[in-house]
Amino acid sequence: MAGDLVIYQEEYELLESVLRRLRADSNARAIFLIDKNGQQIAAAGELDQFDTTSLASLTAGNVAATDGLAKLIGEREFSVLFHEGQQDHIHISIVGKRAILLVIFDDRSSLGLVRLRVKRASGEMETVFETMASKAAVAEETGETASPFAEITDEDIDALFSE
Amino acid sequence: MAFINYANREINCKIVYYGPGLGGKTSNLQYIYDRTAEKSKGKMISLATEADRTLFFDFLPLDLGTVRGFTTRFHLYTVPGQVFYDASRKLILKGVDGVIFVADSQVERVEANVESIRNLDENLSDHGLLLQDIPYALQFNKRDLDNVVSVEDMYRSLNFKREPTFEAIATKGYGVFDTLRAVAKLILKDLNRGR
């Protein structure tokens, strides 16, 4: 499955622990790690306060549109976006080229603190992504693409639509 | 590009509804939203103009249940159909796993359909994808109108790889789930083959 993003338990737990620490260190309300295609990879914080699926999709759309704008003016990308609200604010940054880190914070934190903590956490997450990429490369080489759907049948798929 | 999470045992795929402006892409999503049980769907988001024309995209997350122990989610997106929104269309195709082309069956939209498929082909290749290779289904929408092109003529001008093709009346739901099911099936089989 070249090109598909595959995440295993070990890396998932590592990413979640980085997010939990970042959330505590930056005093943020919630932190989301999102694939650039709009799918949530991991999250930490007050998750029940937010529609996390919609957040992931709109954040990816926002980043994609801003990337388009950057290219129009000759920039490679805008690596950090900040949206300021009356109570809550959003800090968006790119991690390891393919993921987006979304930090939602209020006045218990500050933009400076979030920026500082995001920088450190991003480095840690990039290391995890590198591990994921090398695992995927090994799997590709050895032919162990590990598709959970290797044995899927037409009946399995039809059952999804039966309700 | 599907996202497979072994930790949560989830798989997420992205389906994009493409086609000319006012062809019924949003109506497809709206019908699916209206007919899907609350537990299986998320919020439908429409980034539209005041006149209800799609400005950036519509988005509908669907949770279809489990296959082989994996929760299977499809994220459905529409693109804005109007010609001048091409930059936005290109962005939405990023990471797509399957495409449904919603063609407008009306006689006066023949050219617009052909132009939109050509545009889809171009925008996919900008992402390194080939229409020839990706899971793809074709829908002839608005079959209930008087001034429609015959199905045979539409098939001749729009179908190019014998992709699954469906007649539809999206506002009434006719053909909507058949089209979705066909492309979902192709996507899951594609994963199985290990692209």
Q: How would you sum up this structure, described in words?
A:
The complex is a heterodimer of chains A (about 160) and B (about 200). By secondary structure, chain A is of the alpha+beta class. Chain A has one domain: Beta-Lactamase. Chain A contains four helices and six strands; from the N terminus they run βαββαβββαα. A five-stranded antiparallel beta sheet of chain A has the order 3-2-6-5-4, with helices on both faces. In chain A, α1 runs antiparallel to α3. The longest helix of chain A has about 30 residues. The radius of gyration of chain A is 18 Å and the shape is globular. Chain A starts with a strand and ends with a helix. Chain B has about 200 residues and is α/β, with parallel strands linked by helices. Chain B has a single domain, classed as 3-Layer(aba) Sandwich (Rossmann fold), CATH 3.40.50.300. Chain B has five helices and eight strands, in the order ββαβββαβαβαβα. In chain B, strands 1, 2, 3, 4, 5, 6, 7 and 8 form an eight-stranded mixed beta sheet that branches. In chain B, α3 links the parallel β6 and β7. The longest helix of chain B has 18 residues. The N and C termini of chain B lie close together (about 10 Å). Chains A and B meet through β1, α1, α2 and α4 of A and β1, β2, β4, β5 and α2 of B. β1 of chain A pairs parallel with β1 of chain B, so a sheet runs across the interface.
CATH architectural label of chain B: 3-Layer(aba) Sandwich
* Poorly predicted segments of chain A: none
In percent, how helical is the residue content of chain A?
40-55%
Distance between the termini of chain B: 10 Å
Q: What is the CATH T-level topology of chain B?
A: Rossmann fold
- Principal-axis shape of chain A: globular
- The CATH superfamily title of chain A: Dynein light chain 2a, cytoplasmic
**CATH class call of chain B:** Alpha Beta
